[in-house]
Design brief:
about 250 residues, alpha/beta, Rossmann fold, OB fold (Dihydrolipoamide Acetyltransferase, E2P), 2 domains, 5-stranded parallel sheet, 5-stranded antiparallel sheet, 7 helices, about 35% strand
């Protein structure tokens, strides 16, 4: 039997009990392993930083922080498929988010709502698996801008630059009039969470670059050199990362 690890993030313990009851009643050939109750964003972030789950049920209104922000602070592979929950209904949810394919349950919960959300997750997971076999462009970054969640495919990103405790992703071409988007985590965490197994490479303490977009690697001048991208952008690379850069770039098809 297929097994799925579940985390439920909600400050109402009755929600945990009800969700657990509905999940255990589902007769779809899945054994759900449900983590003990998690009741705050800070507790969830601490747990999801080191533990991996298949599905995360997240209440939008948590006592210490908006539940929508959790995705910005943990490795994307650890949080799995996200199913958001709210007392305020779907209309309120749609005012907060811009992505129409996010999974959502309005409260009060019901067995049918939970069943439909799980089936939607399974359908999307199967689609993503098929897409990954065809192209790596399905990889995405979710980021919170104000109260709006936006999704960007990695292939649209040219490079990411460190910016103190945050980082900035610069697009290869403007998207909706924007040239960049700020990510709420630092460069090292961005790389570990999103890019360590992709076509991106760290080339400087302050830069991660999309190898597919490099047009030219200029010689070092001192301890730094310039990368020229296909869209005309230039960024620095450092002597420390030069050999890895040359090896990885030569391997790009």
């Amino acid at each position: 039997m297929q097994q799925l690890k579940i985390i439920i993030i909600d400050d109402d313990k009755e929600v945990h009990e009800l969700l657990t009851h509905y999940l255990q009643k589902l007769d779809i050939g899945i054994d759900f392993h449900i983590h003990p109750p998690v009741t705050s964003s800070s507790e969830a972030i601490q747990l999801l930083t080191t533990s991996e789950f298949d599905i995360s049920f997240i209440d939008i209104q948590l006592p210490d922080k908006l539940g929508l922000t959790i995705v910005n602070h943990v490795p994307i592979e650890n949080i799995g498929g996200v199913i958001y929950m709210s007392d305020f209904g779907r209309k309120y949810f749609e005012q907060l988010v811009e992505i129409d394919d996010l999974n959502f349950i309005s409260k009060p919960l019901s067995e049918l709502k939970v069943s439909n959300a799980i089936k939607k997750f399974l359908k999307q997971r199967d689609k993503n698996k098929t897409d990954r076999e065809m192209s790596d462009s399905v990889n995405v970054i979710l980021t919170l801008q104000g109260k709006i969640i936006r999704k960007y495919t990695m292939n649209n990103i040219a490079y990411i630059k460190a910016n103190g405790d945050t980082s900035v992703a610069y697009f290869a071409m403007p998207i909706d009039g924007q040239e960049s988007v700020t990510l709420s985590i630092g460069l090292s965490k961005v790389y570990d969470s999103y890019f360590s197994e992709s076509s991106f490479l760290r080339v400087h303490n302050s830069y991660i670059v999309n190898l597919l977009l490099i047009q030219e690697i200029r010689p070092l001048e001192g301890r730094t050199g310039k990368l020229v991208l296909k869209n005309g952008m230039t960024i620095d690379y450092s002597e420390t990362y030069k050999q890895n850069l040359l090896t990885a770039w030569k391997a790009v098809p």
